[in-house]
Amino acid sequence: MNSTDCKEFPYAGKVMDGFVMLAVTFLLIPAVVFLLFAVLPDYLLWLAITAASVGLVAVMVMLNGFFVQQPNQSRVMIFFGKYRGTFRGTGYFWVNPFMSRKKISLRIRNMDIPPIKVNDKVGNPVMIGMVLVWRVRDTYRAVFDVDSADTGRFSVSPEGKINGDSAASAHATSQALDAFVSIQSDAALREVTGRYAYDEEGGNHDDITLRSSGHEINEQLEAKLNERLAMAGIEVVEARLNYLAYAPEIAAVMLRRQQASAIISAREKIVEGAVSMVKMALTQLKDEGVVELDEERKATMVSNLLVVLCADEPAQPVVNTGTLYQ
What we know:
45% helix, three-stranded antiparallel β-sheet, 3 domains, Tetrahydropterin Synthase, Chain A, single chain, alpha+beta, rod-shaped
C-alpha cells in the first residue's frame, strides 16, 4: 500500500490502567525476593532460581510499558515496524512493552517567518514576513511521510534507565516538522507575493495589492499553505502577514514616489474644490443681479479666484481705487 494512501486510525490494541499494572509489578518483586532467599530442598533450589530469574526479567520488561500522556498529546503505536494506530487518551497507562511509541504533540504551534526579499507582480523587491499558527492533524503522515533522524525505540537516560518512549526521537520528529513547515511557508509566501503588486498601479484602486488587501492575501496564504502542508498531515490554523516594506535599495525612491502621488492627489482635490467654488460664485452673482460681468472680466475673476484658492501661501490683495476698467 502506498504510504500517501494511509491515514491515521485509532489504536485498537490493549491499553491497561497504569496504576493496576504498577500494583501487579510491585507484587512480583516480593515473589522474586522470596524465591531467591527461601530455604528450599536441593531439588527445588535450581527451579526456584530459574523462576526468580524469569520473574526479574519480566519485571524489567514490564517497566518499559508504562507511559504518561497529557491532553493534546498522542502516541503513534508501532509494533516491530508496523503501524498499529494512534492512541490519544490522557492519563497513566501500560501497553505491550515491545510496542514502540512515538510521541506527537497535537497542540497549536506558533512560528514567526522572518522577512524575506521577494519580487512583487511588477518586479519591485519587497521585504515580507508572516506569522503562522499550525498543528498536527494526521499523526501517521507527520511521522512516516516526513523524514527525520530516528534514534530508535530504546534510549538510555543519564541515570542508566532504559526508556522505550524515546524523547530524543520525539524531538527529532518535532524538529523535522518545524523545518518542513518553515521551508514550505517560505515557498508559499514567495508564490502568493509574486501574484500582486505592492501598491496600486496606475491609480486603479480595485486591484488586490499587498498593502491594501491584507485580508484577501491572508486567506490565499492560508489556502496555499494548507495545500502544501497537507502531505505532512499538518493543518494551518492561521497565516497572517506581519511585515511588509520595500527592500532597502529602493525604499527611498519609492518613498519619494509615494510622496509625489500624495501631492498630486491633494492638488487634484484642491483644484476640484476651487473650480466648484468659482462656479458657485459666478452663478450666485448672476442669479442675484449683484453685478454684470462680460466674458473678459469673468475670465479675470476666475483667474484671481483660482490663484487665491489653489496657492500654497495666502495671496496678497491689491485694492483698485479707480473704476472697474482702470
